[in-house]
Specification:
By secondary structure, this protein is an alpha/beta fold. It contains four helices and 41 strands.
């Protein structure tokens, strides 16, 4: 046999051995048992939904029904019942569905709120279907549900909280309902979304709301949206197309930072064009007319059924001056705090006294003279407060970060401390009492006011006091106001008019250059000099 023929025979033999080995390996792989994860996923695809049994849930009472605090059943694909022990299921509480509990879940139509962290880190969760009446998905509700791939949001949904769907990497598609008003900070950061449309009902897209969505290719922001906050779509490196509405007037920082290939589609002459040029984005001009801005639904004022809880619903401690409430344990959401407990006057309450997920409306007694520092801050459920007649001071950060929509300030109130109402962006209206003498630094930073009238008894308006009130259009300072400190109205991008009295003799740099407001004041006043110094349009009263 010559060398060439021998080499061919050797190669043929090697190939035969290789093929046999490959076939053997393939056969072994076919016979190899699947992992437990593979088994469970396969099983969940065929498992029928079952209505979970009442005994599978731990609950606690809330006003009008119950809140689920824990699911302890074995079924993986479940329908949560509308009622448990005859009570409507209104809420899913924090950590109610820990890791490994369910794979698919249908929430009941009675449900109103998915509380913070309700399903967070539920690593097996794949499918979620909301009930028809869910209004709010709270912070971190589905944070870290890495296998969650199918979410159906209901039409009545209004708020999606901070980090609500953060790190939901399997979530590739999602339809945001047309009544959602808030998409908060980091709501979908690090999610697997490939395309997203944001309806015009969403007035503000929160900072980093869709940050680091590495698969995101297309974004459409519809007419009606007004503000896109810092880094809303940052680090979406595959983003190719972003359509911006003409209605967006406020762009914070670089919303497409680290999106190297993004092309921005916009209307010529819109604020988006100037913004895109400033950040050197690639631009495509949209030739169609902007769609009409959707009309906002006018919500009727909520009728609240205030009740005074039993003494047993409170814990308190005695002091020389009276009683300090340490905890409210009741289930009522709208409460009248009693003026006495244990036969002594209620004079105050501790920072954590009303903390939790209960209180939405609160009326305070006349015996309380001060709202303490941070005492009601970041209560996500709190929307209405009425102060008693005795309150003289609202402390630092007292209501900061709440969803407060209505506050009744009492005659007798004298001082509103630093940051007392900062970031109360749902607070649209406020009436200041004539007894008020000072509004301190950052007191109303980033509130939702459209008009504000400040009475003349307020001698000092503090630094940054109304900063970034982006809906604020008109400010009236009545005669008697003496000092307006640095940047008091800076960042109020919608401000059209500010009326300043002759009594205001100290006016620092109260506005910022981008604001085009008219300053109305008496001729020869300090306000006129300020307007000329900073090139603002002046109108003599």
């Amino acid at each position: 046999m010559n060398r060439k023929k021998a080499l061919i025979v050797i190669l043929a033999g090697l190939m035969s051995v290789s093929v046999c080995a490959c076939n053997k390996q393939k056969t072994n792989e076919d016979k190899k048992p699947s992992t437990s994860t593979e088994k469970e996923t396969s099983k969940s695809e065929f498992e029928e939904y079952v209505t979970a049994k009442e005994k599978d849930f731990l609950t606690e009472k809330v006003e009008g029904g119950v809140k689920i605090t824990l699911y302890d059943g074995k079924a993986k694909s479940i329908i949560i019942p509308d009622k448990i022990e005859g009570q409507d299921v209104l809420e899913v509480g924090t950590k109610a569905f820990p890791a490994g509990t369910v794979e698919r879940v249908k929430l009941p139509d009675t449900l109103q709120v998915v509380r913070p962290g309700a399903f967070s880190s539920s690593d097996k969760l794949i499918v979620v279907e909301m009930g028809k009446n869910v209004k709010r998905i709270d912070d971190d509700a589905f944070h870290g549900c890495t296998n969650l791939s199918d979410v159906t949001l209901n039409e009545g949904l209004k708020e999606i909280g901070q980090y609500a769907f953060m790190q939901c990497r399997s979530l590739k598609q999602l339809e945001i309902p047309k009544h959602v008003k808030k998409i908060e900070h980091g709501a979908f950061a690090f999610a697997g979304l490939e395309e997203i449309e944001i309806p015009g009902s969403v007035k503000v897209v929160g900072d980093e709301a869709f940050g680091s969505c590495s698969a995101l290719k297309k974004v459409i922001l519809h007419e009606g949206i007004e503000t896109v906050e810092s880094g809303a779509f940052s680090s979406c490196e595959k983003l190719k197309k972003a359509e911006l509405a003409a209605s967006i007037t406020t762009y914070e920082s670089n919303i497409f930072e680290y999106c190297p290939d993004v092309v921005v589609y916009l209307y010529k002459g819109s604020p988006a064009e100037e913004y895109a040029k400033e950040h050197e984005y690639k631009i495509e001009i949209k030739t169609t007319q902007p769609e009409p801005v959707p009309e906002e639904e006018i919500e009727e004022d909520e009728v609240r059924n205030y009740v005074q809880p039993e003494e047993s619903d409170f814990l308190w401690k005695d002091t020389e001056n009276g009683v300090i409430i340490t905890e409210y344990k009741g289930i009522n959401k709208n409460i009248i705090v009693p003026s006495t407990l244990g036969g002594k006057n209620v004079v105050s309450f501790e920072k954590s006294a009303f903390w939790g997920e209960r209180v939405e409306g609160i009326k305070l007694p006349d015996t309380i003279t001060e709202i303490g520092e941070n005492s009601l801050s970041y209560l996500k459920t709190l929307s209405e407060v009425e102060l008693g007649k005795g309150v003289k001071v609202i402390g630092k950060g007292a209501f900061s970060g709440t969803y407060l929509k209505k506050i009744v300030l009492n005659e007798g109130l004298e001082v509103i401390e630093d940051g007392a109402f900062s970031h109360c962006d749902e607070l649209k209206n406020i009436v200041f009492p004539n007894t008020l003498v000072e509004i301190k630094d950052s007191a109303f930073w980033n509130c939702g006011f459209e008009e504000v009238t400040i009475p003349g008894n307020v001698k000092i308006i503090g630094e940054d006091s109304f900063r970034s009130c982006e809906s604020l259009k008109k400010v009236v300072l009545e005669d008697g106001v003496q000092e307006i400190q640095e940047k008091a109205f800076s960042g109020c991008s919608a401000l059209e008019r500010i009326e300043i009295p002759a009594s205001a003799t100290t006016i620092n740099n109260i506005l910022t250059n981008e604001i085009k407001a008219v300053i109305s004041a008496p001729a020869g006043s300090q306000a006129e000099e300020y307007a000329k110094q900073y090139n603002y349009k002046f109108e003599a009263k």
